[in-house]
């Protein structure tokens, strides 16, 4: 084929202030030249929409900012449609950083073939992609082990839901927070969390104390702000905090003040460690070796399997931790 | 002798709200029975007045609170006056937790004899006591090594001044903050800091940026609050924070909000570690083995020796880090 392909894509039009609105984006058409030698044409099947992308909409971001007028980027899973590259054939499932568009043409080196894809293939964006890696790296960073009492915020989110389940499988007591009664039920009834609280009830600290009366040893922080303050407040001596993200602050036009109880870092001898999954891509093989069998087993990943299939699969396309910059994580 | 000894002592009368006032304390007389078998009578020569004591004036403290009506306690250096204990003789210099009083009677096990005391003997309260140990433990906690750019807040204080000098001796670039022009001069001209800023000038962040244009790798935090925010702001990726105290907050009636830039813990992959020197008393011998020769050398401890003697000696009786609970640290 030599004709061009028309693809639609989502572009940033203007940098949002506060909560993004539709006006900050546009759907546009682009014409793609057919793949040349060593290239493939891919049709995207799934893409990931992630909190860190909000940070990239700022002019000053901790990774290269999105540029107005250009298509957004992000992790995606697609199917090879045409190939001029050896080792890649039509029908192959590949992951890439070319999200936010229908089709793309790329060098073979810019996609990664997934040998035995799970169904749905979005699993490789989620629990077996950067999302899962983020959860796993964040747990390892603070040495989460059997017997730890672990609190996960944003626990119904992509990273949080996996962090909580992995901690549970390691023999931890796990409590999660989420923002609706339905999510709280899912955490408890489907994902096997020992306890879950709805932070929108208005008394996060009180509910946490009730859910974890002996306090917590580990806090997996996706949220920051009030959650971080509450977590510090119920931490036991020598507690550890894995700082993965701070969703509560991403849409702030002005930075919000932080927790009022940071002196407890001293009095409780706490450790806080921030991380970005991008630094740990070399651990992907070790991560996949450990977690792929859990996903394959399905029901063992969550304590109670939902009749709709492995819950780990069901959470794949949710939002993901800001730190999970897995565009290069495929 | 069998007559009682009259000693004066300082008692807590009421729990201060905000800044303590004289009315919160009283000077009172007490009658001491002569030492019995195994006991000594000690006359105090020096005592330490430390920030952590402010925390103990609250009803809820991170260590047992002071009780109204009772004498305060704290680290002190004294001279044995009478002894009924083997191994202790009149004239011996001892350290104890019986500060805030002129004389005390105690079991021999509750004092520690200092074999070859430095002059002034208060050195053993300061650089060779809990103060010095706090500085040393805090530096080791975040692995401070040659080439690190280190910022120390409360740098003219007892712990900060030693932390800065030890870091300098390890081959670090060291910048300190203090609250007056005279202290800033002392840091630069006597203690050998590479740079020093006066936080009362009103632009801490701006002055810090100018003093450490390449940013910092380590922050030794004695202050919290605005200092912590500024330090996070100029930290380089993978920076480390040793959380020793939060002087800026100790007199708050209501807790102040924390830094607004905590998300940088994630984006810069920072590590924050809180500590209390009490946990590290077993390291005292190793600390003394390393730091005693530096103090003995005098001029080598500070880069430039003041004509008034070793500057390390001169800082011994200042206030000390809240975390330095060296009552048991002698």
Description:
- 2 copies of one chain form a homodimer.
- In chain A, helix 2 (130-141) packs across helix 8 (284-297).
- The model of chain A is unreliable at 302-330 (pLDDT under 50).
- Chain A has helices at 51-56, 130-141, 158-169, 181-190, 204-211, 225-234, 264-267, 284-297, 311-314; strands at residues 5-12, 25-32, 39-47, 76-83, 93-96, 103-107, 112-113, 149-152, 173-178, 195-198, 216-221, 235-243, 271-274.
- The longest helix of chain A has 14 residues, at 284-297.
- A 6-stranded parallel sheet of chain A has the order 10-9-8-11-12-13, with helices on both faces.
- With 330 residues, the first copy, chain A, is an alpha/beta fold.
- Chain A has 9 helices and 13 strands.
- The two termini of chain A are 29 Å apart.
- Chain A has 2 domains: 5-117, Medium-chain alcohol dehydrogenases, catalytic domain (Quinone Oxidoreductase, Chain A, domain 1), CATH 3.90.180.10; 130-278, 3-Layer(aba) Sandwich (Rossmann fold), CATH 3.40.50.
- Chains A and B meet through helix 7 and strand 13 of A and helix 7 and strand 13 of B.
How are the secondary structure elements laid out?
Two copies of one chain form a homodimer.
Chain A: E1 5-12, E2 25-32, E3 39-47, H1 51-56, E4 76-83, E5 93-96, E6 103-107, E7 112-113, H2 130-141, E8 149-152, H3 158-169, E9 173-178, H4 181-190, E10 195-198, H5 204-211, E11 216-221, H6 225-234, E12 235-243, H7 264-267, E13 271-274, H8 284-297, H9 311-314
Parallel strand pairs in A: 8-9, 8-11, 9-10, 11-12, 12-13
Antiparallel strand pairs in A: 1-2, 3-4, 3-6, 4-5, 5-7
């Amino acid at each position: 084929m030599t004709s061009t392909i028309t693809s639609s894509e989502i572009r940033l039009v203007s940098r949002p202030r506060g909560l993004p609105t539709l006006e900050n984006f546009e759907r546009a058409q682009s014409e793609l030249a057919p793949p040349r030698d060593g290239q493939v044409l891919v049709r995207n099947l799934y893409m990931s929409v992630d909190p860190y992308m909000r940070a990239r909409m700022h002019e000053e971001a901790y990774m290269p900012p999105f540029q107005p007028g250009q298509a957004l980027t992000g992790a995606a899973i697609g199917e090879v449609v045409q190939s001029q590259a050896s080792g890649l054939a039509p029908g192959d499932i590949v992951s890439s950083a070319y999200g936010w568009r229908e089709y793309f043409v790329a060098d073979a080196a810019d996609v990664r073939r997934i040998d035995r894809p799970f169904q749905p293939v979005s699993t490789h964006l989620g629990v077996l992609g950067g999302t899962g890696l983020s959860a796993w790296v964040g747990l390892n960073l603070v040495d989460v082990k059997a017997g730890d009492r672990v609190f996960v915020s944003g626990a119904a989110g992509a990273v949080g839901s996996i962090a909580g389940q992995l901690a549970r499988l390691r023999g931890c007591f796990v409590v999660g927070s989420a923002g609706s009664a339905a999510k709280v039920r899912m955490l408890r009834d489907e994902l096997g969390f020992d306890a879950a609280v709805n932070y929108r009830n208005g008394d996060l600290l009180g509910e946490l104390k009730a859910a974890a009366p002996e306090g917590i040893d580990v806090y997996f922080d996706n949220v920051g702000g009030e959650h971080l303050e509450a977590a510090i407040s119920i931490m036991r001596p020598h507690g550890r905090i894995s700082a993965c993200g701070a969703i509560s602050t991403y849409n702030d036009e002005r930075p919000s003040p932080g927790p009022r109880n940071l002196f407890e870092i001293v009095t409780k001898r706490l450790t806080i460690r921030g991380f970005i999954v991008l630094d740990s891509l070399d651990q992907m093989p070790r991560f996949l070796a450990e977690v792929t069998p859990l996903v394959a087993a399905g029901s063992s990943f969550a304590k109670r399997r939902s009749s709709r299939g492995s819950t780990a699969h069901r959470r794949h396309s949710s939002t993901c931790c800001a730190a999970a910059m897995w565009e290069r994580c495929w």
